[in-house]
């Protein structure tokens, strides 16, 4: 498949997957989010002690803000990605409620002038994912470019739904695979070029197979600091 055909195919797959996700109702989304939260907190207890990058959710993506709020309370430094120039790698700037936000590409909020950090782990949403551990994003290539330039590279934990699994994203040389993927089903780890399903970590027991990284009610407005923008 040539580059033009690949771009058209990925665009169609992205639109199909995003449309299916946007159609999910609030109750279903809240249940999916809670399951993913539990799997991450149990499988990756070390996230509470690292510099952690995450993404502000759009279009019914997994909403990491609930989890990140708890991790921040336990000591994590949390940061959001920022587009500094078209085609350039992203930077991560510290964010917590009270840090000023502005809206950028796709209407996604980003910190205006907080300090930059190099995250040790990144929670990265996916539109689609395949058995080889590759993600289908929004087509800009920003995260692939960013991860390719980071040294040391952070642990990348993809976050998505089982319904977003596809046979292959038809990865190219520039596509960077995930280290882990977490869905409502449980935790996957990439090993020998494939995702291995590790299962759902037992309640109260951190998984001994996952990296330590060194795992609905209405929310009151302003809970996540979104009113600060």
Question: Class by helix and strand content?
Answer: alpha/beta
SSE string, helices as H and strands as E: HHEHEEEEEEEEHEEEE
Low-pLDDT stretches are 207-224
Percent of residues in helices comes to: 10-25%
Number of domains: 1
Largest sheet: 9 strands, mixed
Query: How do the strands line up in the largest sheet?
Result: 6-3-2-1-7-10-11-12-13
Please give the count of helices.
4
Give a description of the structure.
With 229 residues, the chain is α/β, with parallel strands linked by helices. It has one domain: Rossmann fold (3-Layer(aba) Sandwich). Helix content is 24%, strand content 21%. The protein is built from four helices and 13 strands. Strands 6-3-2-1-7-10-11-12-13 form a nine-stranded mixed sheet. Helix 3 (65-73) links the parallel strand 1 and strand 2 (77-82). The longest helix has 20 residues, at 3-22. The chain is globular, with a radius of gyration of 17 Å. Mean pLDDT is 89; it is low at 207-224.
Identify the notable features of this structure and list them briefly.
single chain, 229 residues, alpha/beta, Rossmann fold, two-stranded antiparallel ribbon
């Amino acid at each position: 498949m040539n580059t033009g055909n690949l771009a058209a195919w990925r665009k169609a797959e992205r639109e199909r997957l995003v449309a299916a996700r946007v159609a999910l109702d609030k109750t279903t989304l809240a249940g999916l989010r809670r399951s993913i939260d539990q799997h991450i907190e149990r499988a990756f207890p070390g996230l509470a002690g690292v510099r952690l990058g995450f993404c502000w959710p759009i279009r019914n993506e997994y909403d990491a803000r609930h989890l990140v709020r708890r991790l921040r309370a336990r000591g994590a430094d949390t940061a959001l990605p920022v587009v500094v120039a078209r085609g350039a790698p992203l930077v991560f700037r510290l964010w917590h409620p009270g840090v000023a936000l502005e809206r950028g590409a796709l209407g996604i909020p980003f910190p205006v002038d907080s300090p930059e950090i190099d995250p040790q782990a990144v929670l990265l949403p996916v539109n689609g994912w395949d058995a080889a551990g590759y993600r289908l994003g929004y087509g800009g290539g920003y995260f692939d470019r960013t991860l390719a330039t980071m040294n040391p590279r952070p642990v990348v934990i993809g976050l998505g739904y089982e319904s977003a699994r596809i046979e292959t994203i038809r990865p190219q040389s520039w596509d960077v695979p995930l280290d882990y993927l977490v869905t409502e089903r449980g935790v996957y780890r990439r090993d020998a070029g494939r995702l291995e399903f590790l299962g759902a970590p037992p309640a109260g027991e951190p998984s001994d197979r996952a990296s330590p990284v060194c795992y609905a009610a209405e929310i009151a407005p302003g809970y996540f600091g979104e009113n600060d923008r």
